Fold this protein.
Amino acid sequence: MIVVTTPTGNIGHQVVDLLLGAGAPVRVIARDPSSLAPSVRAQASVVPGSHGDPAVVRAAFEGADAVLWIAPPGFRSVSLDEVYAGFTAPACAAFADGLVDRVVAVSALGRGTPWAGAAGLVTASLAMDDAIMATGVPYRSLALPSFMDNVLRQAVPIATQGLFTGVIAPDRRLPLAATRDITAVAADLLLDASWTGQADHPVLGPEDLSFADLAKIMSEVLDREVEYTQITPDTFRSALLSRGASEAVADGTTAMMAAKNEGLDNGVRRTPEWTTPTSFHEWCESTLLRAVSAA
């Protein structure tokens, strides 16, 4: 039995589909079971509730071979600990009691870099990793870069103004990855019962690209001029607050992006095992083009 948390999220729902497609027995934890796709409700076992609830996780983890652990987004959380390590504490108690054979979790690149201790959301995510590893459960932390799919948040200004913005310097090259590749890695690890021990598993796109590179590629695929404009951290933070983020989340997200701009995501050397296939050009053709056309 494989347990998936956040089964309606961007990563979780794709992993559920891959696992069910492979014929694996799947159990999901869902705050609102009615939000699950009918096909998932028909094929998977559903445990209602929050995976931050001790009773819920113990019921869901009982007899589980593997768990995909994803801390849910907490846009209005009062602290980053509440989003990551604090939220994960009930699951860690279950892991320590041996309810689960293996755990795969969504985390971040940055461990071992000079910026890891002051990278906001990433620092909190790495603390979550540490808490899970302290239980002794066999563990793979998906050490992720920023997602190509994050560009979709700016589909409207790309479509209407030919513009996208960010804190990252135009020439900082980063190893972006597509979520469809991330979910494929997660599903493979969950289905593979042969691995033991604890380790990071970086998931890197096939090439490091700057935001100037992204603008050029988008211009080619969309057949319209797209420009990238760097904004200040203060402007970025203010935009988050205006959209309803808490002070803690706005500060943590801004610190993360500032650390990425310094090199947080560039501390891992790409290997074939850690490299995913989807290029940004391919992702634009398959995903961004449709979103911009609909904007």
Remarks:
- Residues 197 and 223 are 48 Å apart (CA to CA).
- Residues 2-146+177-202 form a domain with the Rossmann fold fold (CATH 3.40.50.720).
- The mean pLDDT is 97.
